[in-house]
Amino acid sequence: MKPSEMRDKTDEELTALETELRDKLLKLNVAKATQRSRNVAQFSQIRKDIARVHTIRTERVLGLRAKGEE
User: Fold this and answer.
1) Of 9, 26, 29, 39, which is most buried with the most CB atoms under 10 A?
2) Half-sphere exposure of 21 (CA within 13 A, CB side)
């Protein structure tokens, strides 16, 4: 997901997105442990998306960017 799409979301939607991403990461880790994972590139993409969510939240707390501002 692009950062601009994430910035358009509310704080509650970002929290839900983070929860969803963490669940996906957990499922991928289980699949990796049982050797069913084929697309290992998803790991880094999901971790980066989680980091983007944290960055957007921090920007809002510090007042660096308002919701929807680019």
Assistant:
1) 9
2) 21
Q: How far is CA 39 from CA 36, 43, 66, in A?
A: 9, 8, 36
Joined tokens for residue 12: 């509650």
Burial class of residue 53 (count of CB atoms within 10 Å of its CB; 0-12, 13-18, 19+)? buried
Alpha carbon distance 53, 70 (integer Å):
16
Residues in the chain: 70
Domains and CATH numbers, the chain: 3-62 (1.10.287)
- Between CA 48 and CA 14 the distance in angstroms is 14
Give tens-digit pLDDT for 1-30.
Answer: 788 888 899 999 999 999 999 999 999 999
**Confidence (pTM):** 0.80
End-to-end CA distance of the chain: 16
